[in-house]
From TrEMBL, chain A:
This is 2-hydroxyacyl-CoA dehydratase family protein. The lineage of its organism: Bacteria, Pseudomonadati, Pseudomonadota, Alphaproteobacteria, Hyphomicrobiales. InterPro entries: FldB/FldC_alpha/beta. It comes from the Bacteria.
Automatic annotation (TrEMBL), chain B:
It comes from the Bacteria. InterPro entries: FldB/FldC_alpha/beta. Belongs to the FldB/FldC dehydratase alpha/beta subunit family. It comes from Chelativorans composti. Pfam families: HGD-D. This is 2-hydroxyacyl-CoA dehydratase family protein. The lineage of its organism: Bacteria, Pseudomonadati, Pseudomonadota, Alphaproteobacteria, Hyphomicrobiales.
Length: 374, 425
């Protein structure tokens, strides 16, 4: 049996990543393990892996069919919550063993509360899996550390109750090692010279498979590439969660995205994932500055500004979901700080339901900014 | 139909007291006294007990709105680069501060606070208070806000004495630890130690005050006709609540309860021929409080319920159990959430609507203050299933730019017409 050429292997791995990204939570991971749904950033997936499950993110899917729950979702609720709740009540997650919601990710708390209440009222189909609220607090005081340790115990109780193992130190260390391999592979991805659009797709593909499989696919897809900087304007993307390859391609019509610091960008996987012990995992997760609820409050903006500065961005683009109520408070200060650093900033405002209209407006705003800087 | 309505004596006492208190506070803080600027759902009790004067964000917001300044500030907010879908009720004081023209503001503006305090109940509170801290250089004390993962719907039955299991020991431990850190800050600020025994007595006094308000609420709910307008309910509850546990507050609560009882005994009513009983759901419509009496003459419809009075009992009474800080944590750790998150908000509103024999509810849904708007449609559905007609009011507590009174009167009138027709009137 002839072995596939390195080029064919690379191509197959790339296709596999592309497929996983497109399929999202419908992707079938290589490992035949129970799947645990995750809603929101801020949950260390390592802990599910250590319990013998595959963590699969559920907030990025597409709406197939509205259900009765739609009538109680206010228009200012984030779109990913609306889609998730409809899909949940449509039985689309019936094959998941359980779902974990990250309280400190704003949409996740609403998703959890609305889902639980619909279930409590007896209006949900029987196929809604058990749900767990991951209550981790993003601060670093001793009292918070004690509280977060209790939350981990509650999580382990939940995972055990739904049929997974209670993670021990060794299982956590092994899962963290796989996350460590993933982190290295993602670092290679960032330095490989692939476009920001491809990097976003390949990174997020990992939200739907094990860390080990993700690391293997990334390593295979990147092959022996030693990397190299792509030319053109160095762009940073910030703001609300964004998953649209078309938007990325539009932005990259003006240069290359070298810093993707929005919630569905390079801030995932969280910094706790590849720590080797539970206390280290909890401490690093609680100190993740990309969480808008981080204390001290200045950590978020400082980390964002450091990220775009270290990436030597020349242009930073901010885009917002129509339901934004947090990043909007940061925009004037970010604009001012970037101005002081000589980095161009364009606030593209709210994304519009019609993508073409929004892209047309975004392109015009970016062009005008660049023209003005000439 | 309403020409004979006479305002309560208590209202005069309350507003006079508040005016004098505000003058005193203004004199205190503008002459350099240390004061705290805090959000409404923080432990005011600690500041009061340590004699640190405080200005509450939402109260100050209502003061600015009542002076008809909100329109100006929200327009200004956009010129700063903040988008127009951000919170308003909780941000109006910040925008006034950022605008910087103190002469325009009530009291000639607020001086730099000695401490800022917010709870992270809503996702944007820490952002708003962080900007305050950056602007003024005042230290910010944040209280964390993990959620209750398995909220029992009938919180008002369990939270008074079963609060340990209801709110969760882990959450209460965390909140008590944060209170202790706050107390340390206040001790440094005032130079005086915190007296736990004295604080226990103070907490008992607050419970006593809230029990009096509970009696007042029972009187209103069971009265054959509503004896007072909610525009009078609100100051008679909220002003003592801002001063809760003080001698004046207890005495005023009694005065208010007794005057209500007297009115009911005398057969007084806002509307002689009361036909429709309504509830106003949400915070006050601070820039147009006369709206609350807009349907009395036309439809015999009276607003009989606003959340402030019944919430004084259900939201505040917490058995002390020998641990006043922990009891305070039980009061604060889900204070606002109980008014805005399912299953708590829907269950409580249905309970209250039944108790007050409500026909129609007007539900304020502030889409730019998402925390206060969440759960609204759950509550609407629950109320409708309980036989209450619900009118959604998509507006804001302090931003009148979205408020069209004539249009709202027309919308409400149409519903009231239908209710009267159903009742055969």
């Amino acid at each position: 049996m002839p072995q596939p050429s390195p080029f064919e292997s690379r191509r197959a791995a790339g296709s596999r990543l592309e497929h996983a990204f497109e399929a999202r939570d419908r992707n079938q991971p290589a490992a035949s393990l129970p799947r645990i749904g995750i809603f929101g950033n801020g949950f260390p997936e390592t802990l599910v892996a250590a319990a013998g499950g595959v963590p699969v993110h559920l907030s990025m899917g597409q709406l197939s069919e509205k259900t009765a729950i739609d009538e109680i979702i206010e228009p200012f609720v984030d779109e990913e919550v609306r889609i998730f709740l409809n899909r949940l009540m449509n039985g689309e997650f019936a094959d998941f063993l359980g779902i974990v919601f990250a309280r400190d990710d704003a949409p996740a708390l609403v998703a959890y509360q609305y889902a639980c209440e619909w279930v409590r009222q007896g209006r949900a189909p029987a196929a809604v899996p058990p749900m767990f609220l991951w209550n981790l607090v993003h601060a670093t005081t001793p009292a918070v550390e004690r509280f977060n340790a209790i939350q981990a115990e509650k999580l382990f109780d939940f995972l055990n109750r739904i049929g997974l193992n209670r993670p021990d130190d060794q299982a956590i260390a092994e899962a963290a090692a796989a996350e460590g391999r993933r982190r290295k592979a993602l670092e290679r991805l960032g330095a490989s010279g692939v476009s920001g659009t491809v990097a976003m797709r390949w990174r997020n593909a990992g939200r739907f498979m094990t860390a080990g499989e993700h690391a293997d696919l990334l390593d295979a897809a990147l092959g022996e590439i030693e990397g190299g900087a792509r030319g053109g304007l160095r762009i940073g993307v910030i703001g609300s969660p964004l998953l649209s390859p078309a938007s990325y391609e539009l932005f990259e019509g003006f240069g290359t995205i070298v810093c993707d610091w929005q919630p569905w960008g390079a801030v995932w996987p969280g910094p706790g994932n590849d720590k080797l012990t539970l206390p280290e995992i909890l401490r690093a997760t609680a100190a993740d500055p990309s969480c808008p609820r981080i204390a001290p409050t200045t950590a978020f903006r400082t980390a964002l500004l450091d990220a775009v500065t270290e990436a030597r961005c020349e242009l930073v683009l901010c885009q917002l979901a129509p339901t934004d109520d947090t990043i909007g408070w940061e925009i004037p200060a970010i604009a001012s700080a970037l101005g002081e650093r000589g980095i161009a900033f364009v606030n593209l405002g709210f994304r519009e339901p019609d993508q073409d209209t929004w892209h047309e407006r975004a392109a015009a705003l970016i062009s005008a900014k660049l023209e003005a800087r000439k | 139909m309403t020409s004979t309505y006479v305002p309560l004596e208590s209202t005069k006492f309350a507003t006079n007291h508040q005016r004098e208190w505000a003058k005193g506070l203004q004199a205190q803080i503008t002459s350099g006294a240390k004061y705290a600027f805090v959000n409404a759902d923080t432990p005011h009790e600690l500041f009061h007990y340590m004699d640190v004067p405080l200005v509450t964000n939402q109260w100050w917001s209502a003061i600015i709105a009542a002076k008809q300044l909100s329109e100006y500030y929200f327009d200004y907010m956009e010129t700063l680069g903040f988008h127009d879908r951000l919170a308003r009720y909780s941000s109006l004081p910040l925008i006034a501060e950022l605008e910087g023209d103190r002469e325009r503001q009530p009291w000639g503006g607020l001086p730099k606070p000695s401490i800022l305090c917010a709870r992270q109940s809503a996702d944007d509170h820490q952002k708003i208070f962080s900007l305050w801290a950056e602007r003024t250089g005042a230290p910010l004390f944040l209280l964390s806000s993990p959620a209750v993962p398995d909220p029992h719907p009938e919180w008002w039955r369990l939270a008074r004495s079963d609060w340990e299991s209801f709110y969760g020991s882990d959450r209460l431990d965390l909140m008590v630890a944060e209170f202790e850190a706050l107390v340390e800050e206040l001790e440094k600020l005032t130079g005086r130690p915190f007296d736990h025994d004295g604080f226990a007595r103070y907490m008992e006094a607050i419970n006593e005050q809230e029990r009096i308000f509970e009696e007042a609420s029972e009187i209103l709910a069971s009265a054959p006709r509503s004896p007072i307008r909610i525009s009078e309910q609100i100051p008679n509850v909220m002003i003592p609540q801002w001063h809760r546990g003080s001698e004046w507050a207890l005495s005023h609560a009694r005065r208010f309860r007794d005057e209500l009882a007297e009115r009911v005994r005398a057969g007084s009513a806002v509307v002689e021929n009361e036909r429709i009983r309504m509830m106003w759901i949400g915070a006050g419509l601070w820039f147009d409080t006369s709206f609350y009496s807009a349907f009395e003459e036309s439809h015999g419809a009276v607003f009989a319920w606003s959340m402030y009075l019944p919430f004084a009992a259900d939201g505040y009474i917490r058995e002390i159990k020998g641990d006043p800080l922990r009891a305070l944590a039980a009061r604060v750790s889900a204070m606002n959430e109980q008014l805005h998150q399912p299953p708590w908000v829907n269950s409580w509103l249905v309970e209250q609507a039944k108790k007050y024999r409500i026909d129609v509810a007007l539900m304020l849904i502030p889409e730019h203050d998402r925390f206060s708007g969440h759960g609204s449609l759950f509550a609407k559905k629950a109320l409708e299933e309980a036989g209450v007609r619900v009118i959604e009011v998509w507006s804001d507590m302090v931003d009148k730019r979205q408020w069209n009174r004539d249009e709202m009167v027309a919308r409400v009138s149409a519903v009231l017409d239908a209710v009267l027709a159903e009742k055969g009137v």
